[in-house]
Specification:
Layout lengths: L1 E2 L10 H10 L11 H13 L6 E5 L2 H10 L6 E5 L4 H4 L4 H5 L4 E4 L9 H9 L10 E8 L10 H13 L3 E6 L2 H8 L14 E4 L10 E5 L2 H13 L7 H12 L3 H22 L6 E2 L7 E5 L2 H9 L2 E2 L1 E4 L2 E5 L6 H18 L5
Parallel strand pairs: 1-11, 3-4, 3-5, 5-6, 6-7
Antiparallel strand pairs: 2-8, 7-8, 9-10, 10-13, 12-13
Helix pairs in contact: 1-10, 2-10, 6-7, 8-11, 11-13, 12-13
Bound molecules: pyridoxal-5'-phosphate (PLP).
């Protein structure tokens, strides 16, 4: 079997497992009062070049998003995001739950990225001060998007500055932010607080951690709320040191960017093969900026590829999603390419 369903299906990076093992000596104060959690705070400030950023380890991306957003909006607020965003379609309304009734509104744009002109038009049409309408309070951008596309730092900056004109705060869903930073080759600060982002959901589990995500608040008022909100939601874990150990290992010596860069490179190899199959009905449905591709294939080829042991998500009768991870090897990709080629050429009538 070759795993291309999701980076969530990958295992734990050895460096991170080793950090958990190393944290498993002696005892430590519970609920984040330990030295490893204090150290993580310093590591986050260094990596993000922000002297007062505050980090809150949580156990899922949904928790990171919904708690970060609930701390940034009043209950009568509306969170603006792309209609394909995970927060709007795939988190069971967690943000509405923790936000006390907050709603989410889609603002469209090509390549699963919010378009600045549409954001401005949406905000200009709001009946500000009218209690009959939820009041836009936060712009949430997803980087990379759920379709694997990235905003450049200046695009994040442009969108956030439009949102700011109307008094909104800015959140970044960075469930795969390492893949974006690795692809962009920028500093983590450039796509976050330097571009105006107030609070970040920092993913780690998809990219090699065991069970750790984090909320990074660049705004002190949001951080002050998160102290209570994370506890009330059950995310102040008693043995937090093991999450902190994972996150510290992840962010130390660029491990997070190496793991993500590896996943991106494997996807680039796969994409080169897919492009060479374009005469046979293979088409990339979206730009591939990181480790995720949405691909249109002849329907019979999809079944053949699945039978040949390729694991992927079917998005429609002739569309699949392919995702590589830190664990995908060069050999996996070569083998996947060979099996895909065979499936596609077999399905193409002209080649018999
Ligand atoms: C963009 C994005 N944000 C957030 C999440 C939520 O993460 P979790 O499944 O850990 O709740 C996911 C999960 O797939 C995601 O793809």
């Amino acid at each position: 079997m070759i795993e291309l369903r999701s980076d969530n299906a990958a295992g734990v990076a050895p460096e991170i497992l080793a950090a958990v093992e190393a944290a498993n000596t002696g005892s430590a104060l519970a609920y984040g009062g330990d030295d490893l959690t204090a150290h993580l705070q310093e590591v986050v400030r260094t990596v993000f070049e922000h002297p007062t950023a505050r980090v809150f380890p949580v156990t899922s991306g949904t928790a990171a998003n919904s708690l970060a957003l609930s701390a940034a909006t009043p209950p009568w607020g509306a969170v603006l995001c792309h209609p394909t965003a995970h927060i709007i379609g795939s988190e069971g309304g967690a943000t509405s739950l923790f936000g006390g009734g907050v709603v989410m509104r889609g603002v469209d744009g090509a390549h699963a990225l919010v378009e600045p002109a549409r954001l401005r038009a949406t905000l200009e049409q709001v009946r500000w001060g009218d209690p009959h309408e939820s009041q836009p309070s936060v712009l949430s951008l997803t980087l990379p998007s759920d379709y694997g596309t990235v905003y450049l730092p200046e695009q994040v900056g442009e969108l956030v500055s439009i949102a700011r004109e109307f008094g909104l705060r800015a959140h970044l869903d960075g469930a795969r932010i390492a893949n974006a930073v690795a692809a962009l080759g920028c500093a983590p600060a450039d796509v976050t607080w330097r571009a105006g982002v107030d609070v970040l959901s920092l993913g780690a589990t998809k990219n090699g951690a065991l069970s750790a995500e984090a909320i990074v608040a660049f705004d002190d008022r949001i951080a002050d709320e998160l102290v209570y909100r994370t506890k009330r939601a059950g995310h102040v874990t008693s043995k937090m040191r093991f999450q902190s150990a994972q996150l510290t290992a992840y962010l130390t010596d660029g491990l997070w960017l190496r793991l993500a860069g590896h996943a991106n490179e494997r996807m680039a190899e796969l994409v080169a093969e897919l492009q060479s199959l374009s005469p046979y009905g293979v088409r990339l449905e979206e730009r591939v900026d990181v480790n995720m591709a949405f691909v249109e294939l002849p329907a019979p080829a999809i079944d053949v590829a699945a039978e040949a042991g390729l694991q992927f998500y079917r998005m429609g009768p002739s569309t699949v999603r392919l995702v590589t991870s830190w664990q995908t090897t060069v050999e996996d990709v070569k083998e996947a390419c060979a099996r895909l080629r065979e499936a596609v050429l077999g399905a193409d009538g002209s080649t018999g």
